[in-house]
Amino acid sequence: MRRYPDIEGKGTGIGSYSDMLDSMLSENGVDHEDVYLKLSTDEGYLKCLRQGFIAPSLFLRKTDCQLYHATDELCCMSFPRIRGKKVVTFHHVSKGREGKSPLLFAIWKIAAKRAVKHSDAIIAVSHQTRDEVVGKLGADPEKVYVLEHTVDPVFRDLGGPREKVIGFVGTLIERKNVPGGLRAFKLFTEMPGTDGYRFVICGEGPMKSELVSLSESLGIADRVVFTSGLGKKDLLELYNGMVVFANSSMHEGLGLTALEAQACGAPVVFFKDADIPEEATKHFVPSGDEEEFARNMYKLAMDEEYRRKVTGGASFGLSPEEYSRELFGIYSKVLGRKFP
Questions:
Q1: Which of 21, 163, 208, 209 is deepest in the core (most CB within 10 A)?
Q2: What pLDDT does residue 20 have?
Q3: pLDDT band at 215 (very low <50, low <70, confident <90, very high)
Q4: Taking a C-beta distance cutoff of 8 angstroms, is the pair 110, 73 a contact?
């Protein structure tokens, strides 16, 4: 049970995860069927309700499947009404609207509660997310498993020269704290030898106009580039061109784009008081405030040897083979027999 496949250039972490599971099941010869749910309001609330909840619910009530896996909690609205064992993956626990429409956020809260109550197993993408699911949503800790999925292998260090680019990739919502990244970049531009450096912000979201205005008020609009709609090939080139990934986010269940950048050889700077799993930030450079964030970016941009030291050997997550083995082990426990 998953959202519709991502449109090229509008990919999400959840979409990548769903594609990974789909491929994993196919490669292991598991007979399965995808149930697609439209869970965005970009084409209107009625279409979201009809294709995201009503139609899938009616379909699922007629099926007779042994196990259902919802690739995120928003896919769980139908869980109380369907038979069979149920598994859900939580990518993070929302603390607020996070740019979601009021209706969709209200639905998320209902879906999250149903996911916790009616799942036979819950997969968390990090230990932090596990603690949030247990502590904030009241899940039974005995049925919550931590599985750190790997970064898509397409994202790798190509070994080419780096450009004068500080980068960010993600949805432009409050918890991503992109204003903090912009202010740090402003401080960076005031340091010697930073002429020609640009801050490339890749993403869309409700804060975009505010961020454009902020870049203008900071006097750095000519050095800030907003872009979106990049496919994997373009993202691979962007990551490999960065000297630094500015991960200004204050809360992540995992933070996949920062890990993708790291896999491509771009060092990641972050705020050490952010709620980001320790296993994800193991090779990130911590900053106490925006001034230190700027100083860290500067050192990484100017010192190639230091930059290589930070990114050298950095890796994250289970391999696809390890992940499928762990996942099928959870399925086996839920079903009470060996899977597949």
A1: 21
A2: 86
A3: very high
A4: no
Q: What is the rounded distance in angstroms from the CA atom of residue 241 to the CA atom of residue 229?
A: 17
Which tokens go with 323? 């992940």
109-150 per-position pLDDT tens digit: 898 999 999 999 999 999 999 999 999 999 999 999 999 888
- Tell me what the mean pLDDT of segment 151-164 comes to: 92
Domain boundaries, the chain: 2-150+318-335, 165-311
For domain 2-150+318-335, the CATH superfamily is Glycogen Phosphorylase B; (3.40.50.2000)
The 10 Å Cβ neighbour count of residue 278 is 10
CA–centroid distance for 212 within its chain: 23
Spatial separation of the C-alpha atoms in residues 234 and 9, rounded to whole Å: 9
Q: CA-CA distance, 224 to 251, in Å (whole number)? A: 24
Superfamily of domain 165-311: Glycogen Phosphorylase B; (3.40.50.2000)
Residue 99 has pLDDT above 70, yes or no: no
| Amino acid at site 187 | L
With beta carbons less than 8 A apart as the criterion, state whether 170 and 207 touch: no
Tell me the two tokens of residue 84: 């069979």
Residue 318 pLDDT exceeds 90: no
Buried b (16+ CB within 10 A) or exposed e, 145-160: bbbbbbbbeebeeeee
The DSSP output letter for 270 is E
Do the first three CATH levels of 2-150+318-335 and 165-311 match, i.e. the same topology?
Answer: yes
